[in-house]
Write a structure and sequence with these properties.
The complex is a heterodimer of chains A (about 350) and B (about 230). Chain A has about 350 residues and is α+β, with helices and mostly antiparallel strands. Helices cover about 25% and strands about 35% of the residues of chain A. In chain A, α6 runs parallel beside α7. The radius of gyration of chain A is 23 Å and the shape is globular. Chain B has about 230 residues and is mostly helical. Chain B has eleven helices and no strands. In chain B, α5 runs antiparallel to α8. The chains are: A alpha+beta (about 350), B mainly alpha (about 230).
Chain lengths: ~350, ~230
C-alpha cells in the first residue's frame, strides 16, 4: 500500500496532496498542470517535498527526517517521454538495472517475452516507434524489480493507433504481474480500461479518492471526469444467447439484452452506461424501442444528475441519469422515489 | 619513405617537442577540464562565479602576464616551485614547464566546450537511471559521459590546437631553449629573428598548418563515428 501525504510550494502552485492506494491500478487523474507529475516525482524521490510523509508497504520513503534517494525506493518509473538511453541498444537499456537490482535479472526472458521485445533487442532507441519505445520503457522499469510501478501519462505522447497498440500490454501487465501500479492520466478511456481506484486531483489538491465505480456513479464527482463521461460502470454476468442473437446478461437490477457480443456463458462483463443515455419514467413504459428497462430507486439528486440504485441489499449497484432540472421537478424525483430507467445504449468494457 | 631532410634536425626537434608538449598538456588537463566543466554546469555553490572567472583568466589576460605569473609561482624560487623541487618536479626552463603553460592556456577553451556538452545532456535521463537503482557515479560513467563524448572531443581538439600554437606564456615562463622548450611557435619566432631564417620559418609554418588540419579532421571523424553509434 502506498501512503502519500505532502505539501509543496511552487511559484504559482501550492500542492497539498494526500491519498493512499489499496493496490491494483490506481489512476491519478486530473487536468494538465494540476500537480500530478509533481506528486509522482515526490513519490519516486526525484523531488523533495517541503513537508509530509510518503510510505510504501509500511517502508518510509520520506518523512522530513528520512529522504530515501530514488535508487533506494524501488519504484519503477515509466515516463511520458520514455527516457531510454540513446547511446545503448534496447537490450542494454533493459539490462541497465540488473547490475543493481539482482532480483530482476532472472525475469529478463519472461518480461521481454511478455512485452514482445525480442525483435527489438539489437535496435537503438532512436530507430523505434513511439509505441515500441514505451514498451521498452515499461520493460526496463519492470526489470528494476520494483515494489510499485509509476506510469506518468505513458500514452499521452502517442497517436490513437499507437495507444490502441499499447493498451493491451498494460492490461496484461495489470492482470499477469500483479504489481501495484500508479497510473497518471488525464484520459478517461485509459482510466476506465485500467484503473480500479481513482485519485482525483484539481489545482494541487486531491478532491477525492476511491473506487472507480463509486466515482463514476457519484453525481458530484463524476462531472470531474468530463461532462460527457458521467455514468456508471456496472457488472453483468452472461446468461445465454436468445434466438435472435441478442445476449442476455444478469445485472444487479435484473436482466438486460446486449447486441453484437460473443461471450462465453458465465463470463463477467463490465458495462458502461453513460448518464445521458438513460431516460427515467415514473411508470413502466410500454411501446418503446429501447429493450432495457430496469427498475431503480432514486438515491440522490444533484443538479441535472440523478443517482439511482440498481437492485437492493448488499448486491446493489449505482448508476446515473442525466435529466434536466425541469424533468426532476415534473417527475417529482427525490430520494426514495421508485422509477424505471430506460437505457438507450450500453458499451461493454473488456474485463 | 617520407623525405625528412627538408627540415633541419633543430626544426624536427621543435616539431617533435611541440607535439609532445601539446599532447601531454591536453591529456593531463582533460580530466580536470571535465571535472571543472561538470562543476560549473551542474552545481550551484557559493563562489561559482569566482571559479568560473579564475578558469577563464588565461583567456582574458595577456599571455605574457600568465607566463609571468607561472614563473613567479612555479619557478625554482616561487612558492609552489620551491615546494616541488625536493620531489624532483621542476617546471622552470623544462619541456614540462612548456606543457604546464600550454595546459593552463588551453584549459578555459576545453572547459567551455565540455561544459556546453554537460548542459545539453537531459538531466531527466540521469533521473531515469537513478530510479533504476544505479548509483550516481555509475550514472555519470554510463549515461552522462558517453553522451558528452562529442563535446569532450571538441574540447580536446580545441585544447590541442591552442597548445600547439601557444607562444606568449610559454616563452615568458620557460624561455626559448632549443631541444628543451623551443616549441614550433618559438622556433618560428627565433628563425624570423635571423636574416637567413625565412625559408625554414615558412617550412615550419606549413607543418603547423598540416598538424592543425589533421587534428580537426581526426576529431570530426571520431565525433561522426560516435554519432553513428546512436
Amino acid at each position: 500500500m502506498l501512503e502519500v501525504v505532502f505539501r509543496h510550494r511552487f511559484p504559482g502552485l501550492a500542492l497539498d496532496v494526500a491519498f493512499r492506494t489499496p493496490g491494483g491500478v490506481t489512476a491519478l487523474f486530473g487536468p494538465s498542470g494540476c500537480g500530478k507529475s509533481t506528486a509522482i516525482n515526490a513519490i519516486a524521490g526525484l523531488l523533495r517535498p517541503d513537508q509530509g510523509r510518503i510510505a510504501l508497504d509500511g517502508r518510509v520513503l520520506f518523512d522530513g527526517r528520512t529522504n530515501l534517494p530514488p535508487q533506494a525506493r524501488r519504484i519503477g518509473c515509466v515516463f511520458q517521454d520514455a527516457r531510454l538511453f540513446p547511446h545503448m541498444t534496447v537490450a542494454a537499456n533493459l539490462r541497465y538495472p540488473s547490475r543493481w537490482r539482482r532480483g530482476a535479472a532472472r525475469d529478463f526472458d519472461r518480461i521481454t517475452g511478455m512485452l514482445a521485445l525480442e525483435p527489438l533487442l539489437h535496435r537503438r532507441p532512436g530507430t523505434l516507434s513511439g509505441g515500441e519505445r514505451q514498451r521498452v520503457a515499461i520493460g526496463r522499469a519492470l526489470l528494476s524489480d520494483p515494489a510499485l510501478l509509476v506510469m506518468d501519462e505513458p500514452l499521452a505522447a502517442l497517436d490513437e493507433a499507437r495507444k490502441a497498440e499499447i493498451m493491451p500490454w498494460l492490461e496484461r501487465l495489470r492482470d499477469e504481474i500483479r504489481l501495484p501500479i500508479l497510473y497518471v492520466s488525464h484520459s478517461v478511456p485509459e482510466v476506465l480500461r485500467l484503473a480500479t481506484t481513482v485519485v482525483l486531483m484539481r489545482q494541487g489538491r486531491v478532491i477525492h479518492s476511491g473506487a472507480l465505480t463509486e466515482i463514476l456513479a457519484d453525481p458530484e464527482l463524476a462531472p470531474q471526469l468530463g461532462a460527457r463521461e458521467a455514468g456508471a460502470l456496472i457488472q453483468a454476468r452472461v446468461e445465454g444467447r436468445e434466438a435472435d442473437g441478442m445476449v442476455r446478461v444478469a445485472t444487479a437490477g435484473g436482466p438486460m439484452l446486449l447486441p453484437d457480443l460473443d461471450p462465453a456463458p458465465g463470463q463477467v462483463l463490465r458495462l458502461r452506461i453513460l448518464a445521458h443515455e438513460v431516460i427515467l419514467a415514473r411508470e413502466a413504459p410500454r411501446g418503446l424501442s429501447a429493450l432495457n428497462v430496469l427498475p431503480v430507486t432514486v438515491t440522490r439528486v444533484e443538479g441535472g444528475l440523478v443517482q439511482l440504485a440498481l437492485g437492493q441489499g448488499p448486491q446493489h449497484e449505482r448508476m446515473l441519469a442525466q435529466i434536466t432540472p425541469r424533468s426532476v421537478k415534473a417527475l417529482e424525483l427525490q430520494q426514495g422515489t421508485a422509477c424505471h430507467a430506460i437505457v438507450k445504449s450500453v458499451s461493454v468494457l473488456p474485463s | 619513405m617520407i623525405p625528412t631532410d627538408w627540415l633541419g634536425p633543430q626544426e624536427w626537434q621543435a616539431v617533435r617537442l611541440s607535439l609532445r608538449v601539446a599532447s601531454v598538456a591536453t591529456l593531463v588537463s582533460l580530466p580536470f577540464a571535465i571535472a571543472v566543466a561538470w562543476l560549473l554546469a551542474r552545481r550551484r555553490f557559493p563562489g561559482h562565479g569566482l571559479v568560473s572567472g579564475i578558469v577563464h583568466l588565461p583567456l582574458i589576460l595577456p599571455p605574457v602576464v600568465t607566463g609571468y605569473l607561472l614563473l613567479v609561482t612555479f619557478g625554482t624560487q616561487g612558492p609552489v616551485g620551491s615546494l616541488l623541487k625536493p620531489l624532483g618536479i621542476v617546471f622552470a626552463f623544462r619541456w614540462t614547464g612548456a606543457a604546464l603553460a600550454c595546459g593552463i592556456m588551453s584549459f578555459p577553451l576545453m572547459v567551455r566546450a565540455i561544459r556546453l556538452g554537460f548542459e545539453a545532456v537531459d538531466p531527466r535521463l540521469e533521473q531515469a537511471a537513478a530510479t533504476l537503482g544505479a548509483p550516481r557515479a555509475w550514472i555519470f560513467l554510463t549515461v552522462t559521459l558517453p553522451l558528452i563524448v562529442p563535446a569532450i572531443l571538441a574540447g580536446a581538439t580545441l585544447g590541442f590546437a591552442k597548445a600547439m600554437g601557444e607562444f606568449g606564456a610559454t616563452i615568458t615562463f620557460v624561455s626559448n631553449i632549443p631541444g628543451q622548450t623551443q616549441t614550433l611557435p618559438s622556433a618560428i619566432y627565433a628563425l624570423l629573428q635571423v636574416p637567413s631564417g625565412d625559408a625554414a620559418a615558412l617550412r615550419l609554418v606549413l607543418v603547423s598548418v598540416v598538424i592543425a588540419m589533421a587534428a580537426v579532421l581526426v576529431s570530426e571523424w571520431l565525433a561522426r563515428r560516435m554519432a553513428g553509434r546512436r
